[in-house]
Amino acid sequence: xxxxxxxxxxxxxxxxxxxxxxxxxxxxxxxxxxxxxxxxxxxxxxxxxxxxxxxxxxxxxxxxxxxxxxxxxxxxxxxxxxxxxxxxxxxxxxxxxxxxxxxxxxxxxxxxxxxxxxxxxxxxxxxxxxxxxxxxxxxxxxxxxxxxxxxxxxxxxxxxxxxxxxxxxxxxxxxxxxxxxxxxxxxxxxxxxxxxxxxxxxxxxxxxxxxxxxxxxxxxxxxxxxxxxxxxxxxxxxxxxxxxxxxxxxxxxxxxxxxxxxxxxxxxxxxxxxxxxxxxxxxxxxxxxxxxxxxxxxxxxxxxxxxxxxxxxxxxxxxxxxxxxxxxxxxxxxxxxxxxxxxxxxxxxxxxxxxxxxxxxxxxxxxxxxxxxxxxxxxxxxxxxxxxxxxxxxxxxxxxxxxxxxxxxxxxxxxxxxxxxxxxxxxxxxxxxxxxxxxxxxxxxxxxxxxxxxxxxxxxxxxxxxxxxxxxxxxxxxxxxxxxxxxxxxxxxxxxxxxxxxxxxxxxxxxxxxxxxxxxxxxxxxxx
Length: 528
Hints:
This protein is mainly α. The chain has a single domain (10-127, 140-505), classed as Amino acid/polyamine transporter I (Up-down Bundle), CATH 1.20.1740. The protein is built from 19 helices and no strands. The radius of gyration is 24 Å and the shape is globular.
């Protein structure tokens, strides 16, 4: 077996092989620096993230608002009726499977990790005076910001523009290869600027790998904290064992493919989330959770534009940039991978259907989740211990502490471990599927190539268990998001151009098809 076949590159072009080798080399080199000189990597990446958020935090806030308006206009217009894959395309997945895959790949364990960490952090370190919302409690305002960042409008701003562009350009119009760079087809031709498409795909792969590696790392740290602090086990060793089992399941999913592997893992994870939220309502501070959720929902809905565009220009520091700016940059980097995956599993669906399954339904689902989780950790008797744990040992310790002080928390902890494992499997599966597809330009990449990418991501995720500074790699996604912010505007405009031409072609074809049937009638009238 030659090297190309070993890596699943036997049918790849030289450019695609180069993309694989360069991306692997860059990420492995970055990981090597992280292990050999963790402080150097931490300073470099964290410094880059800090500079971007300080000077361009406002840009991400503005861009998010522009993309939100564009997405609503696109969906409500005649282009909202366009079907991904063409007018005769049939849906590949049933409604529940489709929704489950979109939800689990779009959020991951961040619902648990940041669902605890952000409301607690904002209460402990609130926005500078004057407060963006007068008369609201700190708890309600903190949870309202959580709704802004992870429920709506965050859901509609970032993933959908890429999903629309990828679906229309690659599937409906059939322009270019199955690559991120193909979305530029409506704006600039591949031969116009030699090497541009290849560089775009390289940057997209690095940003995606950086983002998914960080999420896997956070998930591993959270799982380790729960196993160690709640159950008193040898957390690191057991987490390695759990990851090994996840790896076996992942390899099985690689060979099962998109339809059976990722779909079934996503469906199981969504069911577990529903069960866990039901248990939380029973064992948690239920009355406070429900009352705070409703109060925060009122703040969120009544002050949505205020909170979304909040920048605190007269205050010292960069509170808004470090929260809203960070979230929008993170979503922007993730939008490349998630948006293209959503388009892949949405063939046969219209743009409006995709809007419903990517925005409307998840908005309700995540609103319930974050309302319950936020109300749980902000409740009297919970907030103080959770905040203390987070200040001393980080976000994973905060989740573990909340479970420790909750009645029947061990039951909830078991469910959380399975949910995190489900998120890891679905995130790893879908990320590897899209990374391999983008590398090879193939809608259904071969298992061998996907397995190599999976190995790289798993290694990056596991590193965080032994190297705390390696979490600084999260800054890579934020750093890559700055140039990709312009890319998002370009692909949104390009998708409009392709959609406009597609609608015009359909109208022309329809009018031409009607002409022959009209001619006999016209001739008959002339004969009379």
